[in-house]
Amino acid sequence: MRKNAAVAALLLLAVCIGLGIPLGASAVQDRAILNKSESIPDADATLGLNTRGSVSLAQKYWLMSTQRLSVTELSDGRYMTSEQAGEKALEYIEILNKYDVNRVGTMNDGEYYIAYQTPQLMMSEANSRAPSLIAWSVCVSDRAGSMNFLIDDETGALLSLLYIDRDRTGWETGTKTEIDANELSDIVSQFAQMYGAEVLEIWENTNDNESNFNEFGIDLMFPGGLDTTAFAENSEAEQNAVNSLTLRVNSMAYTFNDGGIL
Fold first, then answer.
1. What's the pLDDT score for residue 156?
2. Are 137 and 81 in contact (CB under 8 A)?
3. Distance in angstroms (rounded) separating the CA atoms of residues 112 and 147
4. Which residues contact 75 (CB under 8 A, 6 or more apart)?
5. Which of 31, 41, 109, 119 pairs with 90 at a CA distance of 20 to 30 A?
6. 259 and 69 in contact (C-beta within 8 Å)?
7. How far is 54 from 84, CA to CA, in rounded Å?
8. Dihedral, 200, 233, 43, 137 alpha carbons, nearest 10
9. Contact between 244 and 226 (Cβ < 8 Å)
10. Measured between alpha carbons, how far is 38 from 49 in angstroms, rounded to an integer?
11. By C-alpha distance, which of 205, 207, 209, 219 is closest to 248?
């Protein structure tokens, strides 16, 4: 009897080791990363995660637009829940529904289909002094295409957006398309106002005649400007500067502020 009990105990221990510890370790690791500075193995930079408000929205857009970023998936966000991230993505779709732009629609039941919403830890691959951030990757899709949002976990701001056709061939098969400058200005202004930013200029890059997409530069000024002196490389340090973001559009796809990720 004792022998059988010992065998059962060993089997139970093996199951706990095989299943419980890895699952528990994932949550513990997430909490450690979210709550204090932490070095991630095989990464070139040491993460110093920020307290709320310690990194401005202007600095987060700078990180997205100028740095090649590495991405680590998390099981939870720090400030937003999965449901809140999904709701924020749908809020952005409703804004775009007012305009003549490619976007996803609802399914037969009248609801949007959210394929996934995943929190991600993002950091510069090359600059160890650059801040890290947590953003939710939210994908909403329909029969024609999908929209991939990167939403700031702290503020809910739209950091990056990709729309692409269902077959994901839009960048190769799409063609340049005529853009309504007034409509583009209205869209950019509406989003900028949500974050307290001022639109300084929207300009089109007309130098690349060979590409199959239109490229626009969007210059924004956030309250307090953009100060990267604390973490930028010396040659990149800027203070009271504007955020220069990029929008690329063709007939089947577009990407805003992709930051080398999407």
1. 97
2. no
3. 11
4. 26, 27, 30, 119
5. 31
6. yes
7. 22
8. 0
9. no
10. 8
11. 205
* Residue/partner pairs of 101-108 with CB below 8 Å, 24 or more apart: 101/163, 101/183, 101/187, 101/254, 102/145, 102/163, 102/252, 102/253, 102/254, 103/147, 103/163, 104/140, 104/141, 104/142, 104/144, 104/145, 104/146, 104/147, 104/163, 105/142, 105/144, 106/142, 107/142
Q: Which residue has the tokens 């007034």?
A: 182
Answer whether 38's CB lies under 8 Å from 49's CB.
yes
Q: Tell me the one-letter amino acid at 98.
A: K
Quote the CA–CA distance of 169 and 162 in Å, as a whole number: 13
CA distance 217 to 235: 22
Indicate the residue type of 169: T
Q: Is the pTM of this model over 0.85?
A: no
**DSSP 8-state symbol, 226:** B
> Cβ contacts of residue 126 below 8 Å, gap of 6+?
44, 45, 67, 68
Query: Which residue in 73, 35, 54 sits closest to 227, CA to CA?
Result: 54
- pLDDT on residue 28: 40
User: In a structure prediction context, what are the per-residue pLDDT tens digits for the chain, which is 262 residues long?
Assistant: 544 544 444 444 343 434 333 333 344 444 444 444 343 433 333 344 556 667 899 999 999 888 889 999 999 999 999 999 999 999 999 999 999 999 999 999 999 999 999 999 999 888 888 889 999 999 999 999 999 999 999 999 999 999 998 888 888 889 998 899 999 999 999 999 999 999 999 999 988 778 899 999 999 999 888 888 877 665 556 667 889 999 999 999 999 997 544 3
Distance CA 256, CA 215 (A): 10
